[in-house]
Amino acid sequence: MEIKNLYTSVACNRTPGALDWGQDGLIYYAACHAISVFDPNFHGSSKIIQTLSGHKARVNTVKKLNAHSNETSVDLISGSDDATCILWNTRDALQPIKHRLQGHTKGITHVAAIYQHENLTVATGSVDSSIKLWRNDGQAFKCFQTIDLKTSFCFALKFLQLPGSECLMLAYASDNDAINLCTVSNDEFVPVEKLTGHSDWVRGLDCVEDVDSEDLLLASSSQDSFIRLWRISKREHIEAQKSFEEFSADEDIVLEERVFSVTHQGSSFFYALSLESVLQGHEGWVYGVHFHKQGSNLRLLSSSIDKTLIVWAPSESGIWFESVRVGEVGGGSLGFYGGKMSPDGRAILGHGFQGSLHLWHQDKADDKLWTPGIIVGGHFESVRDLTWEPEGQFLVTLSADQTTRIHAGWKRDDANESTQTWHEIARPQVHGYDMQCLCMLSRYRFASGAEEKIVRIFQAPGNYVENLRQLCGITSDSEGDNILKTTPKGASVPSLGLSNKPVYNIEAERETKHVKDIYPEHYFTPASMETPPTEETLMQNTLWPEMQKLYGHGYEIYALAATSNGRFLASASRATSTEHAKILIWNTATWKIIQKLEAHQLTVTQIAFAPNNALLLGVSRDRTLSVFENKVTDDGDCDFQLITHTNKKTSVHTRIIWCCDWSHDSLHFSTGSRDGKVVLWGRDESAAGLYASQAVIELKGESVTAVAFAKQKIEDDRYLVATGLETGIVHLYAVRQDWKLLVKIDHSCGHHLTVKRLAFKPSSSKIQLASCGEDNLVRIYDICF
Asked: What sign has the CA pseudo-torsion 594, 550, 435, 439?
């Protein structure tokens, strides 16, 4: 049995310095508790190829080391809220973690490192108001110095190697407007200079060797919206140039410089500091700066909260000017936390405020033209639920980041199955509450529940149907044809609103508006997509209109399920009493409540209709399960009657039952609980209509949080069942009268936090499993026997 990771979707953590672009062409970025590695040039697209898991809390910063070629050495450094810094060797697939630096008492927010010959020096900045310096002592790393920042916090760190000597300099910025420079003396870093000039916190530092001399250029970016370039030059003696006040009117104006001395290996060296340039172009906080040097070409990339990234370049006279500006005009994003340039300098990567990644490529024919590229993306908070479209054409996911997203395979004309890539193609709901659950009513209609009392129903607009057919190679379908004739083109969210409003004929609306209403109430623009959409398009132009609100629950919606034909919808809410723990059955033709099913005393954690639509299963926090059977065969009506309800004596589970699912033939169902038990249930032949446990497996010390049946049987007439655990592990079992473990998907290619939902793809010649979890990940696996 072979497991292949077909698709991984996850966003970057919302912290400055959370990504880096290595000389190997791969991009490394922090994603929840792990580090994702993706190839931005995977068959003309992009794909996550590796996940590095080792931290126990959010990863804040990632630094790729490119200057050392030793295959066994450290090439990646990360810092986390778990107060540790991990040194990785990404080339070692079996044991990538080489060292774990422990010494801080609170989270690490910034890291810096530099190789000198075979020796690696690491600096870590933490929320505990300290900077620690580490050096390898033989095989282990030890902290040889701690810089106490008193009550301040470190906002930027950078190592420099001074020109003309091998002396190290550490530049760091804290919560003031100064940049502190320290050099090594008696095996410790001691302060030698302080650069002042900014009027607000310094958030980014980077340095490079000047192309025309051996001088160092140090760039600093600040919340004052300015970027300052500082020059560090070698001097033969300690005399400095005169300051501006010392020059007479007939002399040339020369920038003031300060000279400091360092002692390295018994020799004294003198260096001059001067302000090279002040760059003004951003209108908001500048979070990051990044130098890129290729041959004689030197450029500086800056990223700002004003939604732009700027590439600066020096002219022949040495004056720096803005050569490229990319980003977003208007829209709903909140700017950039950071940016990097590709090793060849022909691509720009931006890190958005909401975890999104933005990629621009330089046009081969016109160097001044930069076009958006295809990039990976995903949720930036816990993914709580997912469901397949009834025929498996796309996957819908829902997250605590208040969005619902659609993922599908991009079928290109020249691409075979091995090079097909999956992408986020739509974001139908951007809400104001954390999302909780969803279910599909048909290919182009779904219901979602959030941490509010309302169930919301959405239907695809015409523009989505057109783009789905174009991207996924769907020729036609009756429901889609009907939508193209009758429904709006798109949707938008009005200011201070929560409901997606339909947008019909945009030009007609503009013509009928009064002159005082010339400004649009929406920003939707129909788009014909030949490639997967960019982040800006996803946020504004892929919303689905909301067609119905369902009121009936007294507390927040927690679980949803629908029959395969979409005629009935079941919903449940958070509850502490029998009254509020009722399962409501809705008729989707009239959107009215037609039944209230009473069985549980606490929150119903999951609901599932059997594929035959005649049985309804519910599991609850009260440690019981219930099975209802529809006694009416008419499709337009229902009469669900309770046929099985476990209690403390008859229940196999002794803790909260988190999950449940039906087999494809509606003969069995499975439940998973906090007590670590997974139970296969079937009809009890001795008691007509009742269900009894037939096979039990207990995973001691593990909480089972997700379970799913495959849509077909495997060899030996066994069911294929997937179980997800609180630890992030996914198990695949062959089940008949007993549980036979087939494969274990561990942290290296699975999840590293709680698995929230599992679902096998319907209507497929291949067996594919989708999973999501609290680690923000959405994964799809190919399962081959």
From this structure: positive
**Residue 540: left if φ>0, alpha if ψ -120 to 50, beta else—which one?**
alpha
Interatomic CA distance for residues 207 and 291, integer angstroms: 7
Stated pTM of the model: 0.92
Q: Cβ contacts of residue 634 below 8 Å, gap of 6+?
A: none
Q: How many CB atoms lie within 10 A of CB 347?
A: 20
Residue 492, beta-bridge partner list: 501
**Nearest CA-CA partner of 326 in 336, 314, 316:** 336
Contact (CB, 8 A) for 131 and 173: no
* Range list of β-strands (E), 210-365: 216-222, 226-235, 257-264, 267-280, 286-294, 297-304, 308-314, 320-327, 336-341, 347-352, 357-362
> Would the pLDDT of 684 be above 50?
yes
Q: How far apart are CA 256 and CA 633, in angstroms?
A: 90
Which residues make beta-bridge pairs with 302?
Answer: 289, 310
The answer to whether the beta carbons of residues 86 and 78 sit under 8 Å apart is yes
Percent helix, strand, coil in the chain (nearest 5)?
5, 50, 40
Cα separations in angstroms, 41 against 139, 353, 623: 36, 24, 49
* Alpha-carbon distances, residue 472 vs 103, 346, 443 (angstroms): 51, 29, 14
Contact in structure between 162 and 232 (CB atoms under 8 Å): yes
Q: Rounded to 5 degrees, what are φ and ψ at 539?
A: -70, -35
Please list the residues that pair with 548 across neighbouring strands: 457
Count Cβ atoms within 10 A of the Cβ of residue 383 and give its class: 0-12 exposed, 13-18 middle, 19 or more buried: buried
Q: Count other C-beta atoms under 10 Å from residue 612's C-beta.
A: 13
Report the range of poorest mean pLDDT among 6-10, 41-45, 89-93, 287-291: 41-45
Is the Cβ–Cβ distance between 567 and 636 less than 8 Å? yes
Residue 203 corresponds to which tokens in the numbers above? 């958030």
**Residue 748 in 3-state DSSP?**
coil
Contact between 348 and 339 under an 8 Å Cβ cutoff? The reply is yes
Cα–Cα distance for residue pair 221/154, rounded to 1 Å:
14
Residue 597: both structure tokens together: 């099913």
End-to-end CA distance of the chain: 4
| Residue from 420, 369, 424, 373 nearest 401 by CA | 424
- Hey, what amino acid is at 686? S
CA-angle at 38, arms to 36 and 42, nearest 5°: 160
Residues β-bridged to residue 220: 205, 228
What confidence tens digit (pLDDT) does each residue in 592-649 have? 999 999 999 999 999 999 999 999 999 999 999 999 999 887 666 889 999 999 987 8
**Pair 452, 557: CB distance under 8 Å:** yes
Instruction: Report helix, strand or coil for 483.
Output: helix
